Amino acid sequence: MLNGLRGAMTRFFTPIAKALLRLGISPDAVTIGGTLVVVVTALWAFPTGHLLLGTLVIAVFVLTDSLDGVMARQAGRSGPWGAFLDSTLDRFGDGAIFAGLVLWFTAGGDDRLSAILALACLVLGSIVPYARARAEGLGMTASGGIAERADRLALVLVATFAVGVGAPTVVLTVVLALLALASAVTIVQRMSKVYRQVTG
């Protein structure tokens, strides 16, 4: 879904990337800085009930997630290290978002079912990229599926935003349930893809 916007985002971020490089800011600094903002915001804003503020801040930095890649290409520094750093730190950001929701549901939100669903999204969401990385480490491919990272983040942030502006909490609960299911299906799809490569 959101991956289709990659070309448009690249064109949008190119002048920003050039300006940051002229200021001496490295792609790695943008990656690390963006991750820190997402993690701190998610673990502070969501547990304390600032769903609207947290969602808006996180959304800005999630949308700029490709900025570091544009900077690396502009600087001629694209390579394995940048890809590794970006993918690794993405796990911190994703985990913090769902952990923040778990904390909100178990404290201020006082909703055990939704907390369990958010925890399921956190766990299953970490297995989805692991399945791909492990397959690639074995010389196979396991990309794709119905719930890739961009899709999961978009849906949970939209639902959290909706609750933040007054929608009933059940909206977020339903979205979390759908995301947990979609993540599980994606894991099965990736496992099946690897199995076919092994046995085919």
TrEMBL record:
Which residues take part in binding a CDP-1,2-diacyl-sn-glycerol?
A: D28, A29, V30, T31, G69, R73
Q: How does it sit in the membrane?
A: Multi-pass membrane protein
Positions bound to Mg(2+) 2: D65, D86, D90
Q: Any stretches that span the bilayer, and where are they?
A: 20-45, 51-70, 113-132, 153-182
State if Zinc is listed as a keyword.
Answer: no
Q: Which pathway?
A: Lipid metabolism; Phospholipid metabolism; phosphatidylinositol phosphate biosynthesis
Q: Where do the catalytic residues lie?
A: D90 (proton acceptor)
Q: How is the cofactor bound?
A: Contains a di-nuclear catalytic Mg(2+) center.
**Reactions accelerated catalytically:** 1,2-di-(9Z-octadecenoyl)-sn-glycero-3-cytidine-5'-diphosphate + 1D-myo-inositol 3-phosphate = 1,2-di-(9Z-octadecenoyl)-sn-glycero-3-phospho-(1D-myo-inositol-3-phosphate) + CMP + H(+); a CDP-1,2-diacyl-sn-glycerol + 1D-myo-inositol 3-phosphate = a 1,2-diacyl-sn-glycero-3-phospho-(1D-myo-inositol-3-phosphate) + CMP + H(+)
- Listed cofactors: Mg(2+)
The UniProt annotation places Mg(2+) 1 binding at D65, D68, D86
Description of how the protein assembles with itself and partners: Homodimer.
What is the protein name for this chain?
Phosphatidylinositol phosphate synthase
* Organism of origin: Cellulomonas humilata
Q: What is the lineage of its organism?
A: Bacteria, Bacillati, Actinomycetota, Actinomycetes, Micrococcales
